[in-house]
Structure formats: structure tokens, C-alpha cells
Amino acid sequence: MRAAMITKRILLTLAVAASAGLAVAGPGLAQSYPDRPIKLVLPFTAGSPNDVLARLVTPHLSARLGQTVVIDNRPGGGTSIGTKAVMGAEPDGYTLLFSNTPTLLIVPVASKAINYDPIKDVVPVATIASSSNVMVIAPSLPARTLQEFIAHAKANPGKLNFGFGQGTQPHLVGEMFKLATGTNIANVPYRGGAHAITDMLGGRIHMNIGTMSTLKPLHEQGKVRAVAVTSTSRSPLLPEIPTMAESGLPQVTSVSYYGIFGPVGLPAAIVSKINSAMNESLKSPELRAGLEKFGFAPHPGSPKDFAALVASESKKWVPVVKATGFQM
């Protein structure tokens, strides 16, 4: 009878672990992990904000894990190539995914050719940081505030344009903005956001949305005019610029959350070890200063916190994709 009760208890534990996408692993596994370099797959191009953030944190994470964390850039397919590579990897903790919300969540919804479930097909391991965007307009326009820009756009339907990297978060936020304001602003998609900035500086683009690290220096030089930030509160990097909510558009508030994911079946002990190492890394004054310099805010938390955040963000972004007709 006692043996039967113990067996039943073990089976129940396994069932609970399986339902969470984690494998049961003893303390010995966590103690020996890692014993070789870890590959962190980035489904983004080198030099992108995601790449910059990953390269800021990996030296600190490597030091705490005692093994090198190697970045493997695998862009393409709307980030699906790198994401699927991790989903199909051995769940041993040596192949991990660096991604963000909303990108991970919206790709399968925005493209019929991509068929993975961002909630069920990866395991949230550790949050790293968050960031928001800033909306800028051409300084040649007769508008100095967001409301003045909206009024100008409404008075000139179809005459202004919005430049963006195709399928990026700024692209989606721009669609949210146009839907919320009822403005008719022409889309000009580019292969990457940097190309849109080049054309904006050349006087060919009227509106752009991007990262603080990219657009703040241009705003300060008078080459673009910042009119709103998408964060929930004003950014310390641009404290004089109001939020979308302050400007009457709370529905355009948007924040990106960056983190590490693993393939389904990743042992809970390994998830815990990586998570602890990341949280400890985020306590480093050097790393926190580096994050702030590039417009990121540290965002530590447990794997459970991360899973809840991903689920919450999915409920927010998926309806937006459908409502705007956003496509990759």
C-alpha cells in the first residue's frame, strides 16, 4: 500500500511538471549544469536593439554560470527561423532563445505561413529588461506636439507618411496609433528601421517610431522632433516628452519585455539556475548603467512571473494584430 501511494505521488508530480512544460530533474542535474558553452539564439539581426541588449547581458550571465554564453544570430522568416530552431532543440539547457514580447506573440498571428504556439511551444526562463519607443516627426512639419500632428494629419489625409521596418513592433505601434486617431497616413515599409531613419533625415519620411537609443540623439540635434513616448510613465532619458496616455491616447501605450526562453521539456532545475543567474546579473551596477544608456530598464523576476507576463501580453497584442490587419 505504501509503495502504491509513493508511486501515485510520483506520477502526480510528473503530470504537474509536464503540464507546465518542464521536466522533473534532481538537484544533481542543476549542480552539474552547465559543463559546456551555452548557445543563445537571437532571431534578430546583429546590431538590432535585441542584439545590443543580449550582448550587454551575456558576459554577466556567463560569469555567474561559469560557462560562456555564445550569441547565435539567426534572423529571417519574421524571427521564425531562429525561434523554431530552439523549439526543436534538445531540452538540455544548451540551446536557448532570446526574444521579446510582442514579437514572439504576434508572428504566428500576423503570418499564415508560421504555425507555432508562443505560449505552449517554449518555456519562459528569465526576464531581462523592458523598453518603450518614442514617436518622432519631421521638424519641417507645422506641429510641435502630438495633438498638433494629429490635427495636421487629419487636415491632409493621405499626404503624410510613416516609415518603419516591416513586421517590427514600431510598425505595429504605428498601426495602433492610426487606428486610435482615425488618421490616414501612408505606410512606407523598409527591410529595417535604420533605412527609414535615413530617409527621414533626407526629408522623405514624416513619422517614425523607434528606440530611445536611436532617436534621442537625433531629437537633441534637431534632426527629428520627439512628440510622445509609448511607456506608461515619462522616460528619464527624455523627461520633457509626454507619454501617449498624457496626450490622450492610453491605448497606444506599449512596452517590450525581453527575456530568455527554452524548449519544452527543459528541466525545472536548469530553468531555476538560469533564472537565478540572470536575476543576480541584473544587480550589477555596471550592467544596470549599460542598460540605462541604451534605454532599457532591468526587469528581474521568477519563471512563473515571466509566464504570467507572456500570457498577459498575448491577451493584449493578439487582438491588436487582428484589429489592425497587421501582417508580417
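the 2nd protein, sequnce then structure:
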Amino acid sequence: MQKSHWIGEVQSGMHDGKEVELKGWVYRTRGSNKIHFIVLRDSTGTIQCVAKREALGDDSFEDLKASLIETSIILKGMVNVDERAPGGHEIVVSSAEVVGPVNPENPFPITESAMENAEGGETEFLLDNRHLYLRTGRMTNMLKIRSSVFGAVHSYFRERDFTEYQAPSFVAGAVEGGSTLFEVPYFGRKVYLTQSWQLYAEAAMPALERLYTVAPSFRAEKSRTRRHLTEFWHAEMEIAWAGNAEVMEHGEGLVRHIARTLLDERSDELAEVGRDLDLVARYADSPYPRMRYDEAVETLQGLGVAIEWGQDLDYSKEKVLTKEFDVPHFLTHYPR
């Protein structure tokens, strides 16, 4: 049952003129009583497959014709190069097997009309069907991008001899602030979901010197904006014998490495979800400016923002300040 051919390979031209066996799910389907067109999906892409009654026989053709969206099927056939087909290739089907049919009384629910008519709107509808939304092209692309980001974090630190170090998810106290702790009952005691790995890292730093983690963190604050997430994955590092300049170098180096990795591995996926590849390239290639707090205050005052020296820069001021830059930047020398 293990797969030997992938749609992405076929669309890349690896199997032109050869017979392949594709295993995947029905993405779209249309046709007549004599010929049927199936767009097949797997994790690497989609491809058009052409099935004819005379080639498959009545029983197999009727089974294929009755297959609804997300039916699991196995198709065998020749790879035909055809510029008219999406991706430039299609499969001329010689045999078909329906592995997992979809119940006609409970079809795949994510459709344009269903989202338009859903109570609570499109977002709530997709959240209610999250397990199925994962199968859509957008979510598949986002998960692949996320995987490459995680891989880039690990490769950056490991190439520099950092040691990956894990800490517990249940902790006894706060790292950031007591008001955002998630309290959890723990066999008659109170513990909390971790906000950060920081305190454990500080304890381990004299032993390991260079250490990092990628782990979930939890904050008991309502997710009103992207800056307020109840759960997120947190890349953190600690390093001994280093000052602020070295820490900033690693911060810049890590973001540069992630951006470069995404361009190398996931340019197609980034484009498909509407991301600006030129912006990602600037993140990968351009130096990240350093700005002192004094300079930031003067810049904001020059832009008409009401701020006095010594005040904190909240989100509204940060938003104005970042418009002056095309890439991330560091703000240093805050007043003590």
C-alpha cells in the first residue's frame, strides 16, 4: 500500500511517458457517461486524470464516476504531457480503485456556498470544520511553510553548536506576569502552564553555555490581535559570555536564515498564499538597522507623535516607527 509515485514528481516531469500509480483524494470531478475527468490531490499537489469507460469497464468507471470530493482512490495510468492541463501533465487512467468512498448523505462540507451561508461567517465555519480545512491547498501550504520555519530554527542553532534543551510545560510560578498564567489543578496542588523556558535555561546555561529550544508557551490573555495568543510556539536561546551586540547578531542571523530557507524551500507555497517574495528576500539579504531609544523618540516627535523621553513605546508608536524601515530593526538603550 505504500506510495511509490507522487503528484509533485509527475508535474515536475520526472515520469513523462511512463506508467505511474497515484494514491490520493478526489479534489474535483466532472464528466459524462463515456469520459470522466478527476482532479486528484495528494500532499504534493494536484493533477488532472482522464478516465474512459471503454478503458476501465462499466463497473470500475461507474465507481469512479460516483466518487465524491475527498474520496480516497488509487489510479494507475500513463503520464501525458499536455500544456492545456493544469500543471502541464495529465494521467490517462488504465485502472482505478476506490479505497475510501464518501457517504453521499454526509459529503465534504467546505464549499463556497456553505461558507457564504454559514451562521457566524466564513471564519467560524472554517474553525468548526478545522480538521477538514487542513486538507485545503491553503492550509497544506501553510503547514509546509511552518515546517520549514521550524527546520530553519533548528539548523541555525545546531550549525553553531547550540544544544537543544527542553523544559517542563507545568511550572510552579510566573516568568512574564502573574495575570497571564494558566492555572492547572495538579494532584491537590496548583501549577501553571509555562509562559517561557527562560528560568530553566538560566539554570542550565552554566552547564551548556549555548542552548536553545522550540516549544509551546501559554498566556492567559484573550486573543484579540496577533500580539495576544493564548498558545504559540516559542523559539528561545540563551548564551553565556555574550553581550547585547552578540545577542542581536544571533537574532538577526536567525531571521535571515529562516527567510533564506523559505525562499529556497517554499517559494511556490509562499506565492500561493499571497506572500511578497521580494519582502522575504529583503529579510534574507538586507542588514537590520540598530536604533537607539533617543533617536526613536526624536523620529516619532518629528512625525507628529505625542511622546516624551522616558515613556514606553507601545504598539501604536512601534507601528509608526516600523513604517520607516523595510526590514526588522533593533531598538536599544532604553532608559533604565
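The chain has three domains: 7-100, 138-286, 289-336. Residues 289-336 form one domain.
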